[in-house]
Write a structure and sequence with these properties.
The chain is α+β, with helices and mostly antiparallel strands and 202 residues long. It contains three helices and nine strands. The strands form two sheets. The chain has a seven-stranded mixed sheet with strand order 3-2-4-7-8-1-9, sandwiched between helices. A two-stranded antiparallel ribbon has the order 5-6. InterPro entries: DUF4136.
Amino acid sequence: MRRRSLALLMLPALFASACTTGGARRGPVEVIRYNLGTPIAVGSFAVDRDAARGATGLSSDYETVVGAVGDELTRLGFTRVADGAPSIYLVEVSVDRAQVGERRVGPRFGIGLGGGTGGFRGGGVGGGVSTEFGGSTRPVIGNALTVKIRRRTDQTVVWEGTARTSGMAPANADDAAFEAGRIANALFRDFPGQSGFTTTVP
């Protein structure tokens, strides 16, 4: 049976404004959460990987993202158990990524050619050409992390949140872990959060 999401509003698109040059390496994180308006008791949870596969394709660093989500829930007092083990909650973690642009990085230098000729009564005709060399481009990635917490007994979604950001793709595993932790921390900040309101975390 298909589970109904708590989300009643479409999330605003964050990725349309990604620029092609300059700008910060990592953008702010926009977060929206939904809950039932009642306290969420802490308890044990297991990650529901089958539900995530049905929702989106898994990213190459999915385990890193799941670990970051688990760390945040543990910090809040929840207890993670092995996948498939009995638990009070099931946690669904979904990751969506897409390239939304590119940025130029690295040193750049330019060559300018210009000149002018004198004219009648001080007038002049001039022109110039400027060419830029050096540097390279890296893709700008739109990144969305969605987490749902369900009660195992009746499959009710008690909390759902999505965090969206954009920035250059991680350069290595340590960079990917840092970014996953940053987004997960933004998503669970002030948990459970005000339902239906979008907040921005720098």
